[in-house]
Amino acid sequence: MKRLIITALFCLTAAGVFAQKVGDTMYVNVNSANLKSSTGFFASTTGTVRYGDQVRVLGLKSKWVQIRTTGNATGWIPSSSLTTKRIARGTGASASAQEIALAGKGFSPAVEAEYKKSGGTANYAAVDTMERITIPDRDLLAFTEEGHLAQGE
């Protein structure tokens, strides 16, 4: 019983720390993200936010957050693209967007260099090429409709 109470208190505390509320100030924690006119992957794009941008929460719906940027653009963004932690952007020793993405995956340029020295044969140029590929939303929508696939929210 004691373990159940402690677990319940921990869960409630964690939920309170990570919950987003209307009026909160948050920060974009992805390299870039499209603002959408409504919740859903295939909603039209109304703007773009970049890593570290400060935003204000206007509304919440499932896994989506409606935000307003400092430039007064509004739209919906996945909640996973936001953090309550202030993101400092600076010069000098700050990490590049690529380094941040790699660190999020547990992989850094230093780890890559060490892997190469140990005789690793991964084709990094091919991975870099694949990461640069973008598919327009209209093509993705056509693909899902043609294949009778679920479109999610």
Q: Mind explaining what this structure looks like?
A:
The chain has five helices and seven strands, in the order αβββββββαααα. Helices cover 34% and strands 24% of the residues. It has helices at residues 2-18, 97-104, 109-117, 124-131, 137-146; strands spanning 25-28, 32-36, 45-50, 54-61, 64-69, 74-78, 82-83. The protein is an alpha+beta fold and 153 residues long. 11% of the residues are buried. A hairpin with a 4-residue loop joins strand 5 and strand 6 (74-78). The strands form two sheets. Strands 6-5-4-1-7 form a five-stranded antiparallel beta sheet, with no helix packed on it. It has a two-stranded antiparallel ribbon with strand order 2-3.
What integer is the average pLDDT? 79
* Euclidean distance between termini CA atoms: 39 Å
Hey, roughly how much beta strand do the residues contain? 15-25%
Give the strand order, joined by hyphens, for the main sheet.
6-5-4-1-7
CA radius of gyration:
20 Å
Structural class: alpha+beta
**How much helix, percentage-wise, in residues?**
25-40%
Q: SSE order in H/E notation? A: HEEEEEEEHHHH
Poorly predicted segments: 12-17
β-strand number:
7
Largest sheet: 5 strands, antiparallel
Question: What coarse outline follows from CA principal-axis ratios?
Answer: globular
Tally of individual helices: 5
